[in-house]
Design goal:
Elements (H helix, E strand, L loop, with lengths): L3 H17 L5 H7 L5 H13 L3 E3 L6 E4 L14 E4 L17 E11 L4 E2 L6 E6 L9 E7 L13 E5 L9 E6 L3 E10 L2 E5 L8 E4 L3 E11 L3
Parallel strand pairs: 4-7
Antiparallel strand pairs: 1-2, 2-3, 4-6, 5-10, 7-8, 8-13, 9-10, 9-13, 10-11, 11-12
């Protein structure tokens, strides 16, 4: 099952290509879905690929193939369509999660465990993650931690955190929070009335309390990888 945004993006790509004969750029996708940056489009494209609706083609610059459409978008005589994107090299194909073996997960840049930094943008490399950290029901990505505000939770500067992509979280979860649409941070989330508290795990950092409208959960911490 696709999320609302995934469905909107797939429908936009399909309709725009059929109508104009010219595929949308990532900037046009971003504007159509009212997103603040192309990082959200990259994550949606990856999710659609992992669910088998599109395929990024090897050896063809910036090409995406629409493999199938959900029933709600299907029209008689549908055939796969190649559309242009802003990415040259396709990632490794998704595989079912094996709890014994490792799975390659995208590292989407750095996440601040301290003062929020500009939101993560696109894949920088991949990391092998034990299958026990993952589940078949969700999309996962990884981030490199920058800062020491979560050391009390055992998260150090330079660690790789594994994140399950989701838009909600329970009180006490450690989450990737997007503040004001452009600053990403790793913090423990607490809800207080109509406010959200982003708590550090280091007494040197103050808790930030913000209106819910300014904070968007982009994922929940499910694992950590550390190199010595």
């Amino acid at each position: 099952m696709l999320t609302k945004k995934q469905m909107e993006l797939l429908e936009f790509i399909h309709k725009r290509t059929r109508k104009d004969g010219i595929p949308p750029s990532f900037d046009e996708m971003k504007e159509a879905l009212d997103l603040r940056s192309k990082s959200g489009i990259h994550r949606l494209i990856t999710a659609l690929e992992e669910r088998g609706f599109i395929r990024r083609l090897a050896h063809r610059a910036r090409a995406i193939e629409i493999v199938k459409l959900p029933e709600a978008l299907q029209t008689p005589g549908f055939t796969p369509t190649v559309v242009e994107g802003d990415r040259q090299d396709p990632p490794a194909r998704a595989r079912p999660v094996d709890p014994v073996h490792a799975l390659d997960v995208q590292v989407m840049g750095r996440i601040a465990a301290g003062t929020p930094i500009e939101a993560i943008s696109e894949e920088s490399h991949r990391v092998a993650v034990p299958g026990t950290m993952l589940d078949n029901a969700g999309h996962h990505y990884a981030l490199e931690v920058q800062g020491d505000s979560m050391i009390g939770a055992g998260i150090n500067d330079g660690d790789i955190v594994v994140i399950r992509e989701q838009g909600s979280a329970d009180n006490g979860d450690i989450v990737v929070a997007l503040v004001d649409g452009h600053e990403a941070t790793l913090k423990r989330l607490r809800r207080k009335g109509g406010m959200i508290a982003l708590e550090a795990a280091n007494p040197a950092y103050e808790t930030r309390v913000l209106p819910e409208s300014r904070v968007k959960v982009q994922g929940r911490l499910v694992g950590l990888i550390r190199s010595y």
